[in-house]
Specification:
- The complex is a heterodimer of chains A (371) and B (394).
- Chain A is built from 15 helices and one strand.
- Chain A has 371 residues and is an all-alpha fold.
- Chain A has a domain of 151 residues: MetI-like (MetI-like fold).
- In chain A, helix 7 crosses helix 10 and helix 7 packs across helix 13.
- The radius of gyration of chain A is 27 Å and the shape is globular.
- In chain A, 32% of the residues are buried.
- Chain B is mainly α.
- Chain B has two domains: 43 residues; 245 residues, MetI-like fold.
- Chain B is 70% helix and 5% strand.
- Chain B is built from twelve helices and seven strands.
- In chain B, the strands form three sheets. Chain B has a three-stranded antiparallel sheet with strand order 1-2-7.
- In chain B, helix 3 crosses helix 7 and helix 8 packs antiparallel against helix 9.
- Chain B is globular and about 80 Å long.
- The two termini of chain B are 52 Å apart.
- The N terminus of chain B is likely disordered.
- The chains are: A mainly alpha (371), B mainly alpha (394).
- At the A-B interface, helix 2, helix 8, helix 9, helix 13 and helix 15 of A face helix 1, helix 3, helix 4, helix 9 and helix 11 of B.
Amino acid sequence: MTALNVAPTDPVVMRAPPIERIGILRWLHKNLFNNWINTLITTALMVLLVILVPPLISWAFINSVWNSTDPQACVEAGGACWAVIAEKHRVMLFGFYPYAEQWRPFLAVVIYLGVLVITALPVFWNWRILLPLWVFGIITIITLMLGGVFGLPVIETAQWGGLPLTMIVFSGQVSVGMPLAVLLALGRRSEKLPILKTICIVVIETMRAIPPVTVLLIAAVIFPIFLPTGFDIDKMVRIVLALGFYFACLQAEVIRGGLQAVPVSQLEAGKSIGLSAWQINWLIVLPQAIRIVIPGLMNHIIQAFKNSTLVIIVGLFDILNATSASVADPQWISYFTEAYLFVALVYFSGAYSLSKYSKYLEKKFKVVSHQ
Amino acid sequence: MISSSVLSRNRLIDKAEKFDLKRFVLETLTLLTTGLILYYFASTATENLVDQGIASGFGFLHQEAGYAIGETWITYSPSDTYARALLAGFLNTLYVTAIAIVFTTIIGTLIGIARASSHWLLSRLSAGYVEIFRNTPLLLQVMFWIALMRQLPSPRQAYNPVTGLFLTNRGIIHTVPVLNDYLYSLILAFIAGIVLATGYALWRRKRLYASGRSLPFITIVLPLIIVPPVLVWLLGSSSLEFEQPVLKGFNFVGGLTYSPEFLALVLGLVAYTSAFVAEIVRSGIQSVDAGQKDAARSLGLRGSLILRLVILPQALRVVVPPMTNQYVNIAKDSSLAVAIGYPDLVSVGNTAINQTGQAIEILFLMMIVYVGISASVALIMNRYNKRIALVEKP
């Protein structure tokens, strides 16, 4: 019996299988030519790529014009006219903000991106850092954009445009919408308060069924009718609030999904140590619920980022609207592709990094079950 | 002596009653606040509307609209009422939504399958498609397509890649067969073929479930559909007549025209939403356990049968619920028409708001319509979902 007397060791860690080392030919065979259908597909795709890629490269790089104030140069080169971006980038990025003052929105965007990056890093997740940072960030950005102090001329919000407007609409709707979403989700789950619950259900379901465009029209056209005369809320603020409310109603359903996924035993455990209903929600249920639905939450945040383009329907000059206005210039009108590609790149980098960040958060907060 | 358990029970009851009072107060407060806010809004709104001289109520629906609508499914002229204008817009919304749903489903499914395939290049290319189209705003895509459509040559210099097809900045125009008796009989024969084939398929399934014996499917169904129209073609004496688009003045007359706005909207909706659909289809395919395939093979099923009887039914269960969301999104996103001037419900309604000032009534109508559309799509898809959902043994 002594043979079984094995000293306790660390649990056996399963090692990843050794990396398969295969040559290029073997790789090609395995991934592209492993049967006759795949061989056919590979051939067809290759033909397609050979037809499409070289003209694309010569358009984008070889025959393209990168810097010229004269559209005629582009006509002669025959390729992509990236010069349109160089020529129009001020309007595209800052809209109709007065030209001489455009260092202000530029600085605002830089500060904004800095605040955003710091907030995204888990190292700084501490209210004592984040709260002052955001208060500082918001005050500086609004002071810079609006002016009126330190000898800066006042610039009305109607003149704000381009990238700063996009970022204000995006962050505005998320920061208004997130807390509201939590409240709506909790309200919808409150079995003990049937009236509150009914109101939440009606509001959430109606908002979820209608397009954001109608929400914007309500904010732009109907909302002023409901306010007493002489009491006017800035149009941009109205629109941010409306989009934030819309975002909250979509997000509330995601959070509700998370709330439902938290086991009842967690709630009961909270009750058994004498916590109040609010303490149970804030300290036990919500942290777990949010963690479960990170991908869903981030999806709606990305959607909110893309939805910020919708403000052009009610006449705000975000980066997309400013771009289409700048390529309406008859001299440059045929180079709208290049201008739109530039805007697409801005949005793509934003949305793509957000989705990568979502993957990172998901991995970081993956609940590891302890045996 | 009172036992301690009774005491604590009494305390519990006390607590419950106090709790009820708190709840009562909370509920009354909610109701009062909501009521007050609504009352306040309603009274200021009435006051403001009276001040601005805007009528209220739905009486305006019977007034003359006075504006033209580019494309309609019902006869409409500027002298028609607002009600008819809004109906025309509503039909356009349904039309765009239906077309976009069909193409999105087909293209999204194909790309999703390609994305899940073992073919390296195909999978990478479809991944690229998905990332590009879902990470850029739909409105940007729609605005790009409309700019592209408007850059096409004018009808006089129309781009004519194949006979009967003209690409112009007024839209894409193509030849259509004239709807004469001959075409009618062809269409009727085709419908008859489909009815016959469906009948056969239903009978075949009934027999299969009853006896377990399978009859051939494709080899019977395809001829059933093809033979009737071919018979008409062989026996019929006349032939198809085509209506050629002809350039008259500044534009084409005849043929079928798709407006640039319609094309840009549908193209944008399809390209954008199919990227999401592709991801849904891919996750559906990958959700089916590999063991299912092995099990089916060990039973001796053929490859196509494994796909049809084992993999797809299980993948569909994962795919259908999120697809419902995408279909509802298409209906909602079709409202971007207002940005490029396609006359959908929102676009037509927006013009009506600008003319009558009756924003509350018109936006109320729009909201009702969209809630209705979303609810119907959800209802249909939920029915379908129930049919394919896993039936647990009682």
